[in-house]
Amino acid sequence: MTQLALVIDLNVCVGCHACVTSCKEWNTSGSAGPLCDENPYGLNPTGTFFNRVQTYEIGQYPHSETLHFPKSCLHCEDPPCVPVCPTGASYKRKEDGIVLVDYDKCIGCKYCTWACPYGAREFDEKAKVMKKCTLCVDRIYDQSMSEADRKPSCVKACPTSARLFGDIHDPESTVSQAIREDGGYALMPEWGTHPANHYLPRRKTKLKIHADELERADNPLKVDGQLPKPGKDESSMDDVSAW
Amino acid sequence: MKPAFSVIFLTTLIGAGQGLFLALFTHQSYALFGLLPMQSDAFYGYGSVLVLLLLIGGLIASFFHLGRPERAWRSATMWRTSWLSREVIALPAFMGIAFLYGVSHLLAYRPEVVTLPSGLIIDLSVVLGVIGTLLAFVLFVCTGMIYACLRFLREWHTPLTVINYILLGGSSGFILAAFYAASAAPDQADFFAGWAIIITLLAFIGRAASLVRNAHLKAKSTMQTAIGVKHPHIVQRSMGSMGGSFNTREFFHGKNEAFMRSIKPTFLVLTFVLPLLLLAIGLFSPVLLGFAFILQYAGLLAERWFFFAQANHPQNLYYQTIG
User: Residue ranges of the domains in chain B?
Assistant: First the structure.
């Protein structure tokens, strides 16, 4: 059984919000109708988004780090928002595990948002129905697009490739390998929702250079000890100095 | 959570309606066994009219909660999994039975259904009353479970939620019944007022127990589990929007600490203390009993407001700072 999901590499995300705008652009232009925006240029702009990038400060200055944290529907494998829906508008697709809302069935009672611990669903104040990330279900199967484009809009937009997309039930997929090998984790595991989306943790990238790597300990010319060791401010060449 | 007035009115109005129905049929059951004088059909009949009015009021209020009320009929479809869907079925079912119970009395159409070996005659109104009583409890359980089944909202995720919906609705309904009886059948008012005192005391114990429980709750989700970073100091610098979003409007009550602190004693006094005092001194005075019902109803509105506001949704962890 397929479970499509995003794997988001927090080590690479730079917090540029390109995924947010790209998501909004694609999903406000589709056949499902616009995602509402109120006072877009006013004092308190607000609207419906499927994806947000949040920023956290971890630690205390000066020992602090900035973490940019993209958050969208996690397409839980055991989604608590689905069984509570009184109309069946919220459902999880069997074929690919995407959690969707049927906008024509939703009565806008907002009960599903109470049942989602992640705040992943946002009510559309104009359409008066609940909306959420669709994993760009209207892109990923569109045969009229080239295969490279059959990915969620946010994934295509990410300039640092922080967003991976694929089937986490296929052990050979890029996302499964990333989760397995780079310490992928789920959000709020304490609720047993088994989110399909995973996050890769921040990792310290360090380049270790040992002294002998600089000194060229293996330089054969040094072996005879005939050539002089140059001073620090002198130029050095293999054929005129010992290193 | 942000308390929605549609839901506050829905739950308090139908709670009073269910309680009143239970009170009326409790009386009829007592009378059936000869423990109390059987009252006229008009007493039970017009009481049922009152029940229906309360239920209709609640039903109307509930529609204001929906973004798409014209599709409300769809909400009866998922009764296998959703307590909300079950409530949507139980409410009209209960209304229907309360209506038939009232009609049976008002038209005095009470054909004998069965005669027990002891010679006791079970007529149609008794059968409808028993079904109505069951449905009233089913409806209470559905309403309570809508909240109690949400495991993330730990303030609600307890059997006390269901118990309190039953007891608070019962208290409200029996006080209303006492007022109704004091006006329509004064010699029966003490029966209802007596039960009202007992149920109100039980409701006080139940609600106090849930307040104590909630005061000692420890959050299961933390900033650390929310973003998966194991560090004791995590501060949100930006929630990803400048003007707020659905997430900031739906899940925060927006009142200050002082308001939250004052509403708790307010509802405790209005819902329990004052009605109990008025019931004790006003056993036979319709005015005082009416006053007790109105004061308690105001208290129940405050109690329900607090019930919603106190629930702290884990999603709030992601929405701390606009920046």
Answer: 5-319
Q: What ipTM was estimated for this complex?
A: 0.92
- The highest-level CATH class for domain B5-319 is mainly alpha
CA distance B196 to B27: 13
| Model confidence pLDDT, tens digit, residues A128-187 | 999 999 999 999 999 999 999 999 999 999 999 999 999 999 999 999 999 999 999 999
**Cα(B138)–Cα(A131) distance, integer angstroms:** 32
Cβ count near B225 (within 10 Å): 21
* Lookup: tokens for B203: 């409701």
Residues on chain A touching B153 (C-beta within 8 angstroms): 114
pTM, 2 dp: 0.90
Q: Render pLDDT for A54-80 as a digit per residue (tens, 0 to 9).
A: 999 999 999 999 999 999 999 999 999
The answer, yes or no, to whether residue A18 has pLDDT greater than 60, is: yes
C-beta atoms surrounding B143 within 10 Å? 28
- Residue in this structure with the two tokens 């937009």, named with its chain if needed: A157
Q: Is A69 on the interface with B (CB under 8 A)?
A: yes
Measured N-to-C along each axis, helices B5-32 and B83-106 cross at an angle, to the nearest 10 degrees, of 40
What's chain B's average pLDDT? Answer: 95
Helix (H, G, I), strand (E, B) or coil at B124: helix
Q: Retrieve residue B171's tokens.
A: 């208290």
Contacts of B225 in chain A (CB under 8 A): 187-190
- The token duo for A205 is 């990238």
Structure tokens at B78: 């998922």
Residue A105's identity, in one-letter code, is K
The total of other beta-carbon atoms located within 10 Å of residue B22's CB is: 25
Instruction: Tell if the CB–CB gap between A115 and B152 is shorter than 8 Å.
Output: yes
First to last CA, chain B: 22
Q: Tokens for B40?
A: 């006229």
Which residues from chain A sit within 8 angstroms of residue B68, using beta carbons? 106-108, 128-129
Q: Which two tokens stand for residue B195?
A: 């039960």
Number of Cβ within a 10 Å radius of residue A109: 27
Torsion of CA B153, B157, B163, B167, to 10 degrees: -10
For chain B, the maximum distance between any two Cα atoms, rounded to a whole number of angstroms, is: 77
Which of these, B180, B187, B170, B191, lies nearest to B44 by C-alpha position? B180
What are the average pLDDT values for consecutive 10-residue runs of chain B, which has 323 residues?
A: 96 98 97 93 96 98 96 95 97 98 95 88 95 98 97 96 98 97 92 96 98 95 96 95 92 93 96 95 83 97 97 96 83
**Residue A169 identity:** H
